[in-house]
Amino acid sequence: EIVMTQSPVTLSVSPGERATLSCRASQSVSINLAWYQQKPGQAPRLLIYGASTRATGIPASFSGSGSGTDFTLTISSLQSEDFAVYYCQQYDNWPRTFGQGTKVEIK
Amino acid sequence: QVQLVQSGAEVKKPGSSVKVSCKASGGTISTYTFNWVRQAPGQGLEWMGRIIPILSMSNFAQKFQGRVTITADKSTTTAYMELSSLTSEDTAVYYCATEGRVAAAGFDSWGQGTLVTVSS
């Protein structure tokens, strides 16, 4: 099973600032990497797939990069609605596995 | 995009089973798979298994092998997840989510979640 490790666990950011989240896979997943946003009491929402392609309706303030084992999600200018938990997931292999999440909180 | 609606919350006794449904609307069932993901209170996301409705083929995370059954009714575009031998560790929100069958690109649609509480 591919283990996904996210860092940091918690990220404190001021509104309007940039947030950079990391995700590392225990073996190469090529670009078969997705990012999700989850707000309290809600289901996750797909943000990015293919490591860097924004899903339908996702603003350009969200961008993804990386390939192989190291990936980054960048939120260019945090808005109030962006404070949430973010998960990475690999879909290169079975079982599908998620990182443990990064909570982006207001500084 | 597919819309997914799940069945309501359940309270179960230890040792019993629970069956959660997930009805899809929109999209074409032959083009996607149904996945089941759970989230224990305050915890992260855990993939349990999936079914390819058009092939009636399923696979599961090793952790749940022998305890989970995933089925799909193509005529009603509904997937079901049944988990048996429940313990308090199975208390969680259970989500269904779709993934493209031919070209996987993450889980693009999610149900609203079903809270399953296991308590004596």
Uncertain ranges of chain A: none
Instruction: Give the helix level of chain A as a range of percent.
Output: under 10%
Number of E-state strands of chain A: 11
Mean pLDDT of chain A: 97
In DSSP terms (H or I, runs of 4 or more residues), the helix count of chain A works out at 0
Provide the succession of SSEs of chain A.
EEEEEEEEEEE
Based on CA inertia axes, which overall geometry of chain B fits?
globular
How confident overall, as mean pLDDT of chain B? Answer: 95
Rg of chain B over CA atoms, rounded to whole Å, is 14 Å
Shape of chain A: globular
Subunit arrangement of the protein: heterodimer
- Poorly predicted runs of 5 or more residues of chain B: none
Percent strand of chain A equals over 45%
Radius of gyration of chain A from the CA trace? 13 Å
**Cα distance, first to last residue of chain B?**
40 Å
Percent helix range of chain B: under 10%
Structural class of chain A: mainly beta
Number of strands of chain B: 11
Keywords for this entry:
heterodimer; A: 107 residues; mainly beta; seven-stranded mixed beta sheet; four-stranded antiparallel beta sheet; 11 strands; globular; B: 120 residues; 0% helix; 52% strand
Secondary structure elements and their pairing?
The complex is a heterodimer of chains A (107) and B (120).
Chain A: E1 4-7, E2 10-13, E3 19-25, E4 33-38, E5 45-49, E6 53-54, E7 62-67, E8 70-75, E9 85-90, E10 97-98, E11 102-106
Parallel strand pairs in A: 2-11
Antiparallel strand pairs in A: 1-3, 3-8, 4-5, 4-9, 5-6, 7-8, 9-10, 9-11
Chain B: E1 3-6, E2 10-12, E3 18-25, E4 32-39, E5 46-52, E6 57-60, E7 68-73, E8 78-83, E9 92-100, E10 109-110, E11 114-118
Parallel strand pairs in B: 2-11
Antiparallel strand pairs in B: 1-3, 3-8, 4-5, 4-9, 5-6, 7-8, 9-10, 9-11
Task: Describe the protein in words.
The complex is a heterodimer of chains A (107) and B (120). With 107 residues, chain A is mainly beta. In chain A, 0% of the residues lie in helices and 50% in strands. Chain A contains no helices and eleven strands. In chain A, the strands form two sheets. In chain A, strands 2, 4, 5, 6, 9, 10 and 11 form a seven-stranded mixed beta sheet that branches. Chain A has a four-stranded antiparallel beta sheet with strand order 1-3-8-7, with no helix packed on it. In chain A, a hairpin with a 2-residue loop joins strand 7 and strand 8 (70-75). Chain A is globular and about 35 Å long. The radius of gyration of chain B is 14 Å and the shape is globular. Chain B contains no helices and eleven strands. In chain B, the strands form two sheets. In chain B, strands 2, 4, 5, 6, 9, 10 and 11 form a seven-stranded mixed beta sheet that branches. In chain B, strands 1-3-8-7 form a four-stranded antiparallel beta sheet, with no helix packed on it. With 120 residues, chain B is an all-beta fold. In chain B, strand 9 and strand 10 (109-110) form a beta hairpin. Classes of the chains: A mainly beta (107), B mainly beta (120).
